[in-house]
Design brief:
Shape: globular
Largest sheet: 9 strands, antiparallel
Length: 418
């Protein structure tokens, strides 16, 4: 029996591991998590992080997690994590067992968007044009640009996820800029990016240092309100499958070129990578961003369409640098939607009236979160499968109508709006 340690920073990661553990009863999983939960499965042991390991936002202290992994490495056959804040502060060589986690060099692909922009351009991968802005004159510079426009933080960390990318279709940036400046350090820079109209898809890959396999894709709803209006969120809903087949081959070519370039720079990416992809009116897929972790809630809908026994086997192969086995996606559609606060923003809502969930039918999964980590803005997520995304959405919305969500709500077009 393999002993496996998974380091988790969210209730969504916890759910993924429960799915994997359920299909891998010949393995024993210990989960070091800042969001303790009832595993309900005999082959999972939850290791709650000591309160001293967690900051005022509920985020784990990376040094404490690394110390635990290093000191206890001999207990485990395999250690892995999806947490990008752990990646950006960790030398995986310090952990003396098999590890699946992008290292500090790889983490730059997400945390340093200018590095990634220049990297993509250097190998001829289409990405929107951009220009650096002066943080002291953001409003004035945006006034001079045409709308819509995309504003991004050039270099950021996991705590700024909801601010990292902002799409402005009107002058609402005049209200948002004060918050951007308030929650970012003075040494953080911004850049504006050309807006490309279309549906953004999160395409997920598993890499072993030199090669990759495709895990699947999902449509990510970022905007707070129906019809993709309002402020950006960390992710408000998703569905999978979500891509046109004619764009897959081209994006696969991009991945081949990207891995080859990374290797030439001495960067050997091991772990999950996802590309934010949008296809413009010219039919050419553009890479909007690279992320060194799964996207949420997108990855929940992708995992729901995979054989998780095969997925764990590929995690182990990737960690050891061996060739992985192609993953086959199941034919059904999966929809996931966040239950979020009615006044969603970056301010704490710890005293909000929580949803009073009663009966949950077998054909729906409800995953409640830890409001420390979401600051009360997200309560949890609901997932359903069906032959089509519309039918899966119907299941969720029919159930939600029977529940008291308190101070929380959902968008009403997730799974319906392409």
């Amino acid at each position: 029996m393999k002993n496996i340690l998974f380091i988790s920073n969210s209730f969504l990661n916890n759910h993924i591991i429960k799915c994997i553990a359920r299909d891998n009863l010949d393995c024993f999983f210990e989960i070091l998590t800042s969001s303790p939960f009832d595993p309900e499965i005999a082959n999972i042991k939850v290791i709650p992080m000591h309160i001293a390991w967690v900051d005022e936002f509920g985020y784990p202290a990376v040094g404490s997690m690394l110390t635990y992994a290093v000191e206890n490495a001999k207990k485990y056959d395999f250690i892995f994590t999806f947490s990008n804040f752990f990646q950006s502060n960790t030398r995986t060589s310090d952990i003396k067992t098999m590890v699946l986690c992008p290292d500090q060099q790889c983490a730059k692909l997400e945390s340093d968007k200018l590095f990634t922009k220049n990297l993509l351009r250097s190998i001829g991968i289409p990405t929107p044009k951009s220009q650096i802005l002066d943080r002291n004159f953001l409003k004035e510079q945006l006034d001079d640009l045409g709308l819509p426009v995309v504003l991004k933080i050039a270099r950021s960390d996991h705590r700024l996820l909801s601010f990292a990318t902002n799409v402005f279709s009107d002058r609402n940036y005049q209200k948002i800029i004060p918050d951007l400046l308030k929650y970012t350090d003075e040494n953080m820079s911004f850049f504006a990016e050309d807006f490309i109209a279309g549906r953004e898809v999160s395409m997920h890959f598993l890499c072993n240092g030199a090669e990759w396999i495709y895990l699947g894709e999902a449509r990510d709803y970022k905007k707070l309100f129906n019809n993709d209006q309002g402020i950006n969120t960390g992710g408000i809903g998703s569905y999978s499958p979500a891509t046109e087949n004619n764009s897959l081959d081209r994006v696969f070519d991009y991945m081949n070129a990207l891995m080859k370039k990374l290797n030439s720079l001495g960067i050997f990416y091991k772990g999950i990578m996802y590309l934010g992809v949008i296809t413009g009116q010219d039919g050419i897929p553009n890479i909007l961003e690279i992320n060194t972790r799964p996207g949420y809630p997108e990855f929940l809908t992708i995992v729901n369409r995979l054989n998780t026994r095969d997925l764990l086997e590929n995690f182990l192969l990737a960690a050891s640098g061996k060739s992985m086995k192609p993953m086959k996606q199941k034919s059904h559609a999966t929809v996931a939607m966040m239950i979020h606060h009615k006044n969603y923003d970056n301010t704490p809502k710890y005293l909000a009236r929580q949803p009073n969930i009663q009966t949950v039918p077998d054909n729906i999964k409800v995953i409640s979160g830890d409001i420390r980590l979401t600051r009360g803005n997200h309560w949890g997520i609901v997932i359903a499968d069906a032959d089509t995304k519309e039918q899966a959405a119907d299941k969720i919305y029919s159930w939600i109508e029977t529940q008291d969500l308190g101070d929380y709500t959902t968008r009403t077009d997730i799974g319906y709006l392409d």
